[in-house]
Amino acid sequence: MQWIIFMLLLFISSMEMLTQNRWKKQASAGLLENCTGCILCSEDNGCITCHHRLFLLIWRDGIRQYGMCVHTCPPGYFGVRGLEVNRCTKCRSPSCESCFSRDFCMKCKDKFYLYKGQCFRQCPPSTAAQPGTRECQETCEPGPWSEWSACTHENRTCGCKWGVETRVREVPEAAREEGAACPPLQESRRCRMKKHCPGDKTEPRNKSKKRQKKPKTERHVGT
Predict the structure, then answer these.
(1) Which of 61, 69, 136, 142 has the smallest count of CB within 10 Å of its CB?
(2) In whole angstroms, what is the distance from residue 38 CA to residue 49 CA?
(3) From the CB of residue 206, how many other CB atoms can be counted at a distance below 10 Å?
(4) pTM value surpassing 0.70
(5) H helices present in 55-186, as ranges
(6) What CA–CA distance (Å, rounded) separates 101 from 90?
(7) Nearest CA among 93, 100, 31, 109 for reference residue 66
(8) Of the ranges 96-100, 117-121, 180-184, which one carries the lowest mean pLDDT score?
(9) Domains of the chain from N-terminus onward
(10) pLDDT confidence of residue 24
(11) How far is CA 202 from the centre of its chain?
C-alpha cells in the first residue's frame, strides 16, 4: 500500500515538473518576441537596457512596470540620450502630444491650443488662434492715434490746392516681438492747402470799373 502511494506521489510530481518546463518554454518564446533590441531583458519587466541607438520606453500596468526598446518615442514622450541608456520620458501635461522637454510642449492633442510651450482649452486673453495651426499668438492692440500731420504736397505746405495729411499709432513691444498681425498703423486723408505761400507775388485785382461814356448833349442855339 505504501509503495502504491509513493508511486502516485512520484507521478504527480513528474507532471508538475513537466507543466512548469512547458510554461518556461512558452514564457521564453514570448520573452524573445518582446525583447527585440534589448541587451538585458527580464521575464517580469521586459527590456532593462537597449542597444545604443534605441530608446528604453517604460510604462506601468497597474503595479507592474514593463520596458521595451523603440527607435522613436511614442506620442506624449520625448527622447533623452544618456551615457548608459537612452530613455523615453513622458511629457508632464497629459494634453501634450509632442514635447521638447518635460515641461515644454511642441504640439498639443486635439481640442487643445499651444501657447508658449503649454496646452490650453482656449487661447489666453490678448491672444488668438492661428488658422490651421492650433497655436495661440499675441494679438496686436495699437495705442491711440496721433494728431494729424500738416497738410503737404510733395513736401510743400502751400502753393497747391490739395494735399495729404497723415496720423499714426504705436504698437506694444511684446506684440512686435511676437510678430502679431496688426491692424493699420497709419491713416491718410485729403486736405485743403494754402494756395499761395507767404512772400509770393500776386497780381493785384483790378477793381475799377470801366467808366461809362455819357452821351453828349448838343446845345441848340435859338434863332
Answers:
(1) 61
(2) 6
(3) 7
(4) no
(5) 173-178
(6) 9
(7) 31
(8) 180-184
(9) 34-90 (2.10.220.10), 144-173+181-192 (no CATH)
(10) 36
(11) 64
